[in-house]
Amino acid sequence: MDKVIGKILLTFGVLFLIAGFLLYKGIKIPFGKLPGDIVIKRENFAFYFPLATCIIISLILTIIFSLIWRR
Fold it and tell me: For residues 21 and 28, which has the higher predicted lDDT (pLDDT)?
């Protein structure tokens, strides 16, 4: 059980390091403004749901975790 938690923490740590480095260098990550994202703007109301972004992030995390826990 301890090894599983260690792998999870290492994975998230590496992901945070990569994201932090990209933000530090000023590199814009294209997530959040993809064609499948839903944006509704009215006078006093704005609704934003990143549907395509959620799907892509889910696929990336699924691939990463399946590679980590491959036996």
Answer: 21
Q: What percent of the chain has pLDDT over 90?
A: 11
**Nearest residue to 61 (alpha-carbon basis) of 15, 6, 4:** 15
What gap in Å lies between CA 52 and CA 50, rounded to an integer? 6
Secondary element (H or E) of residue 39: strand 38-41
DSSP 49: E
Q: What is the pTM of this model?
A: 0.56
Q: Which of 40, 41, 18, 14 is nearest to 29 (CA)?
A: 18
- 49 and 16, same structural domain? no
Same domain, 69 and 45: yes
CB–CB of 22/39 below 8 Å? Answer: no
Q: Which amino acid is at 17?
A: L
**Which residue segment(s) compose the domain that 16 sits in?**
1-28
